Amino acid sequence: MAGRSLLVLCGCIGICVAVPSTDPLCGMKIRITEGGLNYANTVLIDNLRTKSQGSTVADMSHTEKHLQFQLTKNYVRELSIPNSHVTLLKGNGIKWSARDVNISVSSDYSYRYEKKIGFIPIKISDHGGLDVSMSGGSFDVWMKMGMDDTNRPSIATSSCNCNIATVSVKFSGGSIGTIIYNLLHGLIGSYLKDVLKKNLCDTIKGVVNHDLEKSLQRVRIDHKIGDKFQLDYGLLKAPEIHTESIESFLKGNVNWKNTTEPMPFDPSPFPNTNSTDKMVYVWVSGYMFNSLSYQAERHGILKRTLTNGDFDDAFLNTSCKFGSVCIGKFLPQLTHSFPNEVVEVDLMSRKAPNIALIQGKLHLTMNGTMTMHVKRTSASERQYLFTMDTDMTSVIDISYAKGYLHSKLKKMNFNVCISNSTLHPIYERALNFIMQNIVKDYIKPKLDGLGKTGLPLIKTGKNPTKLIVMARHQDECCTFRDHNLIIIMIWCLTRTSGSMFPIMLVAVLLGFMTGTTNGFVQQIPLPDELQECYKYQTKNIDITQKPSQEVNIFCITKYLYQTAHLRPQRQVTNQTISYVGELMRRVISKHEKKGHRSKRQGFPGPRIMGVRREIRTLSRQEWDTLMYRLNQLQQPILTPGQPPFVPYYAITDMHMSPAIIQAAHNGPNFLGWHRFYLLLLEEALGMPIPYWDSRLDYRMPQPTDSVVWTPEFFGEGFGNVASGPFAGWPSIPSPDRVPLVRNIGNDGSLISDNAVNELMSAFSHFDITEPAPPQQMTFETIHNAVHIWIDGQMSGISSSPQDPIFFMHHAFIDYLWSMFRNLQRNSGVNPENDYPRKGDRMHAPMSQMIPFSMMNIQGYRNEIESPYAPSPTCPECGGSNYLQCVPPGYCASISGFAPGFSSTPGQRGSRPVPIRQRFETGLRDPRTRGDTMATVPLRGRRSVKETNKTTTPFSNDASQMNKPYQNTFIIDGDSDLKKWVFVPVRIIFERPPEAKFESFIIKDGHLVNNTDMFSPSKYDSFKIERKQKVPATYPKCHISGSGASKVFIQTDGIDYSGRYKDYAVVDERLPISSSMAYVGVKTPVNGAAKFYMTAYDSCGRVCRPKCLVNGRYEDCSGAFLISTAYPKMYGSTYEEAVQGVWTIGNQLLAESHSAEVPIAFICKISKQWPWRI
To answer: Which residue numbers delimit the Tyrosinase copper-binding domain (predicted)?
Structure first.
């Protein structure tokens, strides 16, 4: 790890000497000071500390005598290097030193101990968790720099020393005996200490001498300017290392094509200054620009013949049309001698233009001739008129935008005189008018046009050098963003009239250390966990058998569970731990007493709190009492000197920590953990939690119309909850607890009868818990779908309990689990003995049920099972006024009023919500808003079918297309919108094969109603590959009548907690259509961030990601790193992201700026799975 860091640090030095620089006979000179290197080192160490947290370490194994052990799943918990320093050794090189290096690593261990005592073999094995802390580390690395025979910089280590002071080992889990513990403790500590000492210097040397040196050998030392010129910026000599700075000298001259020849002039000498108060200095003279103008003049580039096509209003006509202005108006002798003819102007330079840099502007001096001829229509040859000698001086502003240097003509002065003429007389006023028009209509537009197009900056290898013009005199310095290196330089001096002037600050980005960098977005490998999941889920099926989006969302969810420890979470307070601990103690005490009374029968005993019932069967008094007690728990308790304590949020916070996310989800402990969680809230309330049977709403034609989304029950389903019992929650808002938000029916699904029937057809818990095969339905699958269907806080794994619906939804999951357990009992199986042995070790039956002081298997005990009143059935439907019987004999909810989204900022539907990791599911209701789908893709056996009577496919496009998606704008628990930036994404969409539209042609006066005029098969000139193998879609995938449909784009943080989702509208009528979206990711201002981006159409087909690499879109993984590297290809606001793609300055472009769209998704009907696995 230290070696990798050194690669970045040495890159700062290597790149500084690879960028154009001068000696007294050259164009440029660079000085990087020791202060600059140490600032770079400080930023590097801070970035290294942040990025190393959660990084993985290779598995290790070791055998010594009778003991063998293995360390697997190693990841870094913490790294600190508080003391590090770069020292320049005059004439010798560079020394990088670090002291007090501390590193903490967590691992899974397993061991096997075998030994014979006499004739008795002893074999002991075990496994568990391991925390290793190494402290007091140090290293010193000496490096030397030089120049190779290709004029490139070179670097190599000359020496390296390292040491590790102490290693401590702490075991968790397992059942290690004292003797084995002592053996393992000493052996692992000694082994790791030796390994680290041995490998640290070897790693550093390998990175510097091989990786960095190889990278420097690929550095470009020339750059083509157009197809005729080449800039040479190779080193002239090896960098000079002084006690306070490194100085480099580069050529900085322009050659003609591939030739090399000396210039007839020398660069201006730079002043002899020893300044080192800045971090980096760059001196530049006009030598580079003047060598360019010299080559252009020498090879005849500065010649041009102007015709009427170069001017407005036929300016070179000898005779003027009525109301127009032409050259004949000011030279009437032309009109008299050559009526109705056209003049041509030959431009040619007399000597090479001279360019000087003065106070941030280009000063251009040109000397040339203008020769005029008349091109007569009756003659093949031109007739000479006169010649003018012209001297022009111009001032040009320089600016930078989006990877290009731009220029604009500020002012131009000229002097003209006639050197030869066949026309007499020619007055000075006429000459000035001619020159003004040539400048106005030709020279200025041409210069400004070229300046507006801009000059792309120098490329190093495959990666463009990026330049930013910054405010003068700022004291900037080196900054690091992962492998991208930013060096802030002062382009400070140029020679004019014997004086030196400060010019500008220039930021040069060289991303040579990675091969596919383009601006701020850099492709990174797909995380191993995602890669393995995609492989497993698609191993034995092809794309025609299962919608690819079902695989995609399942794998993303699993990845978020597995890697929860890599993403920041808010810490649980000691007050919360004490409160919940006391609740748990009371729950266990009561149920232990209850267990003694019911032990003989092995079935649940009398319920302590009472019977749980469906919410719509409660009396109004019972419901109001429950709501009153929930609101009382939500009121803060104020203690002097302490922050407000809210009992309800103390309970919800227990669902937040990474360890609980992993231990309570994606495994068999999901059911038992949440059963205890319900008991905690019941203990705090002092009454049973009713269950919300969402099947009753699923059976409605439109579940979003249910009465539960009214003030009678849950309050609003769309936007902020402003009415009902939860209005005004929370009573004390904070960045992590903002008003409740819901976006019901946008995605996911409520629970269907078919899903429940499939669960109840299983025999054991092994069949209905995660992890499970792709075609298998589980309790967790249907549970996740409801979280997503409600959205808002409910869609976030850690924030979902903040909405009280969470507990009523989980009470229903617990009710279904009780139904399943009763079926087991009827089959002679005792459920408490049927704990599955599968999944992560945190879900093992004898592992601790974090954070409670019990084992996971105790969550399956019969005595903690709660009694339930059966779900309402026809004809009475529980006697509820809120339920009714519907065909074919089910109870369903009645309709109520569900307010819609507000378009006013700050009103319902617009407030950020603290969402971190989110639930995912393969289940989707056909009636979800916001897309054109009409299906429920079950993650179950394909024989299970939803009845047509439970779905209502939309035919009204407005019902699908006019609903926006409300994002929650939360990253790492903070609802600050400034922590988001927006990335432009292009969608290329191929017409789906099932699309058919009622847009008919008329032939011979008759409507041909069996045709689709948009179908590509109707046109011979438009060839579309006929797909023999079509990917699976969600059943009854709906195609809208208008052709408008949505492609959804989603980002999930890899090293941050946050999700953003948006959609692009595409036209399914067209063979190929294109659209844009602007998708949120974490801002890289405080450090580079990693995210995973996916896209899928409304029928469940995942699109293929493409990355912009050197101007072309290439296949990539979909995992990215965003940094502050330039050009800035994201917007700090949504508006800025749009403007960056569609405008240059104040001008609206006719088409999007492709160089500003770093990511594209190709939604093409393919025979292959969309992932690179």
So the answer is: 665-682, 803-814
pTM for this predicted structure: 0.54
Of 456, 482, 513, the position where a domain reaches its end is: 456
510-531 b/e (C-beta count within 10 Å ≥ 16 → b): bbbbbebbbbbbbbbebbeebb
- What per-residue confidence (pLDDT) applies to 179? 53
| 427 Cβ contact list (under 8 Å, min separation 6) | none
Say whether 495 sits in a helix, a strand or coil: strand
Task: Give the mean pLDDT of 95-104.
Answer: 86
Q: Are residues 654 and 527 in the same domain?
A: no
**Residue partners of 1023: CB distance under 8 A and separation at least 6:** 1016
Tell me, yes or no, whether 747 and 677 share the same domain: yes
Classify residue 373 by burial, with Cβ atoms within 10 Å: 0-12, 13-18, 19+.
Answer: middle
Other CB atoms within 10 A of residue 649 CB: 24
Q: Which domain covers residue 975, as residue numbers? A: 522-559+963-1163
Write the CB contacts of 1 (distance below 8 Å, at least 6 apart in sequence): 48, 52, 55, 76, 79, 103, 203
Q: What is the CATH number of the domain that holds 622?
A: 1.10.1280.10
Q: Domains in the chain: how many in total?
A: 4
pLDDT in tens, 488-541: 222 222 222 222 222 222 222 222 222 233 335 778 889 988 988 898 888 888
Rounded CA-CA distance 613/798 in Å is 27
Return the SS3 of 503.
coil
Q: Tell whether 385 and 526 lie within a shared domain.
A: no
My answer on whether 629 and 702 are in the same domain is yes
Whole-number Å distance between alpha carbons of 591 and 585 = 10
Residue count (the chain): 1173
Rounded Cα distance between 1091 and 1083, Å, is: 11
* Confidence bin at 127 (pLDDT 50/70/90): confident
pLDDT at position 1021 is 47
pLDDT at 223 over 80: no
Lowest mean pLDDT of 57-66, 218-227, 753-762, name the range. 218-227
- Domain assignment present for 240: no
Indicate whether 514 belongs to any domain.
Answer: no
Does residue 265 lie in a domain region? no
| CATH number for the domain harbouring residue 62 | 3.15.10.10
CATH number at residue 405: 3.15.20.10
429 by DSSP, 3-state: which?
helix
- Tell me, yes or no, whether 441 and 540 share the same domain: no
Contact predicate 954/897, CB 8 Å:
no
> Is 1064 exposed, middle or buried (CB count within 10 Å of its CB: 0-12, 13-18, 19+)?
buried
Query: Are β-strands 1159-1163 and 980-990 bridged in parallel, bridged antiparallel, or unpaired?
Result: parallel
Residue 479 reports pLDDT greater than 70: no
**3-class secondary-structure state, position 753:** helix
Which letter, b or e, does each residue of 878-912 get, where b requires 16 or more Cβ atoms within 10 Å of its Cβ?
bebebbbebeeebbbbbbbebbebeeeeeebbbbb
- Segment (H or E) for 1141: helix 1134-1142
Tokens 């149920």 belong to which residue? 591
Q: Is residue 403 part of a domain?
A: yes
List, for residues 1007-1035, the tens digit of each pLDDT value: 666 666 666 555 544 444 444 556 766 55
In the numeric block, the tokens 């590959």 are attached to: 1025
Query: 315-342: b or e for each residue (b if 16 or more CB lie within 10 Å)?
Result: bbbbbbeeeebbbbbbbeebbeebeebb
191, 220, 249: which is the final residue of a domain?
A: 220
Residue 428: helix, strand or coil by DSSP?
helix
Give the pLDDT confidence score for residue 1162 in this predicted structure.
93
End-to-end CA distance of the chain: 28
Q: Which residue has the tokens 């019987």?
A: 885
